Amino acid sequence: MFKQFFYTELILYLIMALLITACNDNSTDESIKLFEPVKIGALIPLTGTLSEKGKARKNAAQLAVKDLNEAGYPIQLIVADTETNPPAAIAAALHLINEENNHLLIGGSASSVTIAVAEQVSIPRQIPQISYSSTSPLITYLPADEDQDFLFRTVSPDTQQGIILARLAYEIMGYKEVSILYINDAYGKGLSRVFTENFQVLGGKISAAIPHETEPAASYVAALQQAAVGNSEALVAISYTGHARIYLKEAIEYDFFKKFLFTDGTKSEQLIEALGADALEGLCGTASGSSPSDSLDIFNSRYEAEYGESKMTFLTNTYDAVIIAALAAYSAQAAGEALMPITIREHLRKVAGWPGRQVIAGPDALKQALTYLRQGEPINYVGASGDVDFDKQGDVVTPVEIWCYQNGQIVSQSLEQPCLLCGKK
Fold first, then answer.
1. Following DSSP, what letter does each residue of 248-314 receive, concatenated?
2. Taking 60 as the threshold, does the pLDDT of residue 28 lie above it?
3. Domains in the chain, ordered, with CATH?
4. pLDDT at 201 > cutoff 70
5. Alpha helices in 72-185 (DSSP H)
6. Predicted confidence band of residue 419 (pLDDT cuts 50, 70, 90)
7. Burial class of 374 by CB neighbour count within 10 A (0 to 12, 13 to 18, 19+)
8. How far apart, in whole angstroms, are the C-alpha atoms of residue 338 and residue 332?
9. Terminal alpha carbon distance of the chain
């Protein structure tokens, strides 16, 4: 009788233990759902001179949402069109904050858009803003953000790209004298200046540096005439696709230039269609790159499965910006803090930097990241674009890609590691 009672009690105990474990597992899963979803506003150029790149960047942002949702943290992403235009972007940002009540902004693409939104919308309202492709050096020390710390980006400033572009021109392509045609905004002026300084240090000469307006023109012949002076061997095209597809075609047709150097803004499959593969064959440029990693492999695999292959720039940076924003929001809530723009800002560096448990891209790794945060452990998200450790200015260091047009395609040639101290005060 005693043995029967003992075994009966033991079986009941084991059943209860299993039920408790099951309940604990379910409550862990349910606890994820108790966290308030962060609302993220995404400023993306669906129209305007950067519209070619807008759809792919929107896809990258939506892939981040999908991965977070599969990991157990559904977030809300609301996309607004910047039209690649500062006034339109300001209106879009105000809508996202005042009417949609977003906690944080991702974007914009163009540096002029990012700066305008930061100065007139996000910083005055103390809303964190993370750009995924704005590279102007002006953003690093933007006066409006001094002692504020609301402006971040997941891409290196052009203090890095300008150095590599100068080396590409002088050391690899062998150009000793070039002209520049650049868009007259923060991006164009900043990259043109950095390139000029470094090209001259190497021994090169700038024949002319000609700005053009931000709105696309019907013709750029007058600007090309000003640029085609001296012994210029090539034209450095620091613009966006909407401008370059017009003036590069005119440069060839009117025999102003036959050789060109490109940047992230003119890395474009549309240029192949507009100019023809033969006209671009062997011509090269620079752009932000992504370090080889498990995160990058996962991102590429998932992006291609969802949307097909894309050679657009800044897709990994866009994905990482959304992931970091969401992880910071989750981290704040896991610490018992209210979900507010300020608290999210305070956790941005806590989820992407040393020390911390390293986590990578993709739903499986992100689910583990959420578990670590609930357990009170710090994490270090290593993104698809590389290490995204924000410095005190909100900048990161990512590699610079050298790429070329070959056989009607855009082909990556190498990744150059940027100087860690260049451009820093």
1. HHHHHHTTS-S-EEB-GGG--HHHHHHH-HHHHTT-EEEEE----SHHHHHHHHHHHHHH-----TT
2. no
3. 37-156+292-387 (3.40.50.2300), 159-290+399-416 (3.40.50.2300)
4. yes
5. 86-94, 111-117, 158-167
6. low
7. middle
8. 7
9. 84
